[in-house]
Write a structure and sequence with these properties.
mainly alpha, Growth Hormone, Chain: A, 2 domains
């Protein structure tokens, strides 16, 4: 079978990036969500206690990523890959064997750090560092690992739990990570040039590249970041409180559940529109365009109470998630170069983790205060619009003469 042209630049690393993001699913919230009731019943935990332990582990993993993320700039790819997978596998093992609830906390931490933080960071960093001409399309391919994992892992774990309880899926995850994922990832990365060698060969299209400190002093970074975070912030909050929203609107629970098929389809298909668009018009413009669907979806949610509303609003929301997966990943190497892309991406990734940890709390507080769904949707729509306006004002970094698209 003939490979698409955009994969020919480095097919092994393209599939490495895809597998890394898909494998990160073992540390993502959509996988953990399957085990909530089983873990709470086993250790007699309240919903709030379970959520607190998970939230603390997530916030700590975001902090640790600021220190471990830059290893992608200094270590060989095989070494940092082995570290990420071993952290994830150790976390899964601790959760699966935990005799007491106290061991859940380090288990959650290691699984979140190795999976949601390190492996997803590593996949996006590889896509940004080793690809130039087709970076947008490779980012789209890499980001498609997330919906692939969403479609496979929770359903598989649910089926296993029916006849074997909640511990076995975690132990099988350990076996898969060590016997399948790690060897394949190491094989795919076997010829990956050291990050320093990529730069020596002229792999950076921005002279010198910018350091993390320089990026943190760039006002443009803080104008772009809200646009990159707005979709995961909104999606996490709205999906976490989806049953509360459905109750306020008197929507049947099964109707909302079936509407998620449109969300997943919009997410997956939009990746393959967004990728070529990034390569053609630049990541910043593609990112701003990609926020239009979620803005429209929130307006639909605000003004319509019809039974078809969740289908349309979730499909539009999923479409924006796909755009952010491609454009949000490409925007940092496009603007700042690849010399320190691991360190730079670790800041953006940590900010994303922090925002998704806070958004359910903030939206939950608004709902508890009596805010109606219309007011909530309009508030979020205004925030999306403001993030686009901020991104539109961004100019090239100081000292960078090339056109900023």
């Amino acid at each position: 079978m003939k490979l698409p042209d955009f994969l020919k630049e480095n097919p092994s690393l393209a599939f490495f990036a895809l597998l890394a993001t898909a494998t990160s699913g073992f540390g993502q919230t959509f996988f953990f969500s399957v085990f909530g009731s089983g873990i709470r019943d086993t250790f007699v935990l309240s919903n709030s206690a379970y959520g607190l332990y998970y939230g603390l582990a997530t916030l700590l993993s975001a902090t640790l990523l600021l220190y471990l993320g830059p290893l992608a700039d200094r270590w060989a790819l095989r070494n940092v890959t082995a570290l990420a997978v071993l952290l994830l596998a150790t976390g899964c093992l601790m959760i699966g064997l935990a005799p007491h609830w106290s061991l859940l906390i380090p288990g959650f931490l290691l699984a979140r750090l190795g999976g949601q933080a390190m492996l997803s960071h590593l996949g996006m960093t590889v896509a940004g560092r080793y690809f130039g001409r087709s970076r947008g399309r490779i980012m789209a391919l890499t980001a498609s690992g997330f919906p692939i994992a969403e479609a496979i892992l929770p359903a598989s774990a649910g089926l296993i739990m029916v006849w074997a309880g909640w511990r076995l899926p975690w132990l099988l995850a350990v076996a898969f990570l060590l016997l399948v994922a790690l060897p394949v990832l190491l094989f795919l990365s076997r010829r990956a040039a050291h990050p320093g060698a990529v730069l020596a060969a002229g792999g950076d299209d921005i002279a010198g590249g910018m350091t993390r400190g320089e990026v943190l002093r760039d006002p443009g970074f803080y104008r772009i970041l809200p646009a990159a975070l707005m979709v995961p912030f909104t999606v996490t909050a709205m999906l976490f409180h989806q049953t509360a929203i459905a109750d306020l609107r008197d929507w049947p629970a099964e109707r909302v559940a079936t509407a998620f098929t449109g969300f997943a389809l919009g997410h997956f298909l939009s990746l393959f529109v967004a990728g070529p668009l990034v390569d053609r018009i630049g990541a910043r413009r593609a990112l701003m365009m990609g926020l239009a669907p979620i803005f429209s979806g929130l307006l639909v949610l605000a003004v319509s109470n019809a039974l078809w509303t969740p289908y349309l609003y979730l499909m539009l929301t999923g479409t924006s998630l796909g755009f952010v997966g491609a454009a949000g990943g490409a925007i940092w190497p496009e603007r700042y170069g690849i010399r320190h892309i691991g360190a730079i991406r670790s800041v953006a990734q940590a900010a994303m983790v922090l925002s998704t940890a806070l958004s359910p709390v903030l939206v939950g507080a608004l709902l508890d205060m009596g805010m109606a769904t219309t007011g909530l949707a309009l508030t979020l729509a205004v925030m999306v619009l403001l993030s686009v306006a901020l991104a539109a004002t961004v100019k090239p970094p100081a000292g960078q003469s090339r056109a900023w698209r």
